[in-house]
Design goal:
Distance between the termini: 45 Å
Radius of gyration: 20 Å
Helix content: 25-40%
Number of domains: 1
GO molecular function: oxidoreductase activity
CATH topology: NADH Oxidase
Organism: Saccharopolyspora shandongensis
InterPro entries: Nitroreductase (IPR029479), Nitroreductase-like (IPR000415), Nitroreductase/BluB (IPR050627)
CATH superfamily: NADH Oxidase
Number of helices: 8
Domain Nitroreductase: 38-205
Strand content: 5-15%
Protein name: Nitroreductase
């Protein structure tokens, strides 16, 4: 039986008593988490080996723990395993990417991507066992009509970060693929106009011969300012 709250509330509240760790244990856990996340890389070379449905479910459950504006959780994850649908996504994504790479008016953008050696070919979308597309709910739809959502981009971005973390924790790899524009995903995946595509996640195990660019991460003194 839940103990009554010492404060009056108009809505249900429950006690929150997380474990308070000794400082040394907390720092150790923080270091372990950093080292784990620092080993994560975005992958473009995938194995076709199957990934269990339960892994996708766990990753989305992890995403669902994200904080969100007014706790509206304005995200939908669509998991695609069907080869025909995956191929449709690949063809549409490659068409958009081809147009992007052929644009002559964005040389700086192309230059920034050059170190990644990416191009319009997205053959991994046919190879991976799963494509998961995160959709942002621009507004909710209830029996009473539209429900305004707050801080949608921030909320969905945090959820996607936890989703990526969960995949990495299970030994899986992914890539944040954002072809522009992405409206074709709404049609292919039969999503309502209240949602917009946010990120495409190809998901699988890295290929046996997988390679990634030799990059370094931003140093702490550039990412953190003390005041």
């Amino acid at each position: 039986m839940t103990a009554p709250s010492p404060r009056p509330h108009a809505h249900p509240f429950v006690p929150y008593r997380p474990e308070r760790l000794p400082v040394a244990d907390g720092l150790r856990r923080g270091q372990e988490l950093f080292e784990h996340l620092d080993s994560r890389r975005s992958v473009r070379f995938f194995s076709p080996d199957p990934v269990p449905r339960e892994a996708i479910e766990l990753a989305v459950r992890s995403a669902n723990t994200a904080p969100s504006g007014a706790h509206q959780q304005p995200w939908t994850f669509v998991a695609v395993q069907d080869p025909g649908l995956k191929h449709q996504i690949r063809l549409a994504a490659e068409a958009e990417e081809k147009a992007f790479y052929e644009r002559a008016d964005i040389p700086q953008w192309h230059g920034a991507l050059s170190q990644l050696e990416t191009d319009a070919n997205k053959d991994y979308l046919d190879v991976v066992p799963w494509i998961v597309v995160a959709f942002a709910q621009k507004y909710g739809v209830t029996g009473a009509g539209r429900q305004k959502h707050y801080y949608v981009n921030e909320s969905v971005g945090i959820a996607c970060g936890l989703f990526i973390n969960a995949l990495h924790t299970m030994g899986l790899a992914t890539l944040t693929h954002t072809p522009n524009p992405m409206g074709f995903l709404t049609k292919i995946l039969d999503r309502p106009t209240s949602e917009r595509p946010y990120i495409v996640f190809p998901i699988g195990y890295p290929a046996a011969d997988c390679e990634v660019p030799d990059l370094t991460r931003k140093p702490l003194d550039e990412a953190l300012i003390w005041r």
